[in-house]
Amino acid sequence: MxxxxxAPAGNxxxxxxxxxxxxxxDSVSSLSFSPRTNHLVAxxxxxxxxxWELTRNGASVTSVPKASMSHDQPVLCSAWxxxxxxxxxxxxxxQAKMWSLMSGGQPVxxxxxxxxxxEIAWIPEMNVLxxxxxxxxxxxxxTRQSNPVHTQQLPERCYALTVRHPLMVVGTADRNLxxxxxxxxxxxxxxxxxxxxxxxxxxxAFPDQQGFLVGSIEGRVGVHHLDDSQISKNFTFKxxxxxxxxYSVNSLNFHPVYHTFATAxxxxxxxxxxxxxxxxxxxxxxxxxxxxxxxxxxxxTIYAYSVCYDWSKGAENHNPATAKxxxxxxxxxxxxxxxxxxxxxxxxx
Length: 349
What we know:
The protein has 349 residues and is mainly beta.
């Protein structure tokens, strides 16, 4: 297999994106937008959860820091309640916190695991919080109670999680993809071995709940449909590669309006794709450091992405002098994210 190369030295912002002011002091582990407003939350390896209010003025986007709170150890994941008032975060202190951001309340612990919490999601249709941990369990929580409503054993450590009710997909170590139908949340619906040969990094449920995307450390994305009659539509494609250098696909986000999707990778690039026509819609220029996470806002007019060291090469390759952390805001043009009319043949790039 080709070597895992380093992102190019040089420009950290080649796409001329808008910079979020007062970014974290260490690498960003997750980005989450409020489902109602342009409030952006970032979690970081510096143990902090931060929130900014973003304002769009014509073509530009500005940011104002609004609030922050801390965990005892690095924070790995974040999610918003559907009403846009409350933020959930989880991390290496093995707990999830609920933070009533808009009322200025103090964070309270609402979930506990025996190992770090890697993934978190709020499921409004069920009024529950779900947490996925490296302790090989998934737990459902009523945030008013101290014990989980249900604990689901996983085949391995939780690495990735996506929810589009009633579909939930959990990616674990050993390339397991565990599918749940949340109308029967206490039983696995289906267990699939990843169509990709290497470790799962991220998953994203289709907006129509008919399947999901999976991204791996080997610069490849799988498009997987759940219905057996749709198997012919399944495919994988290479991305985030540069000749012999192969980079991890770190983040997958569907556009909330056009249902195309973005990939972001350790090569420092993000790209927009249309799975139905198997086309890359737009390739953006590579930043000088990896992109570990990204997110669209609720109407798809802002794509946030962090540019920072992603620890994939370990602590020995971390140079604090050069490893600055950035969060950028890109305003996608319609042509970058709107599916193009299909041409007779597929011309996948």
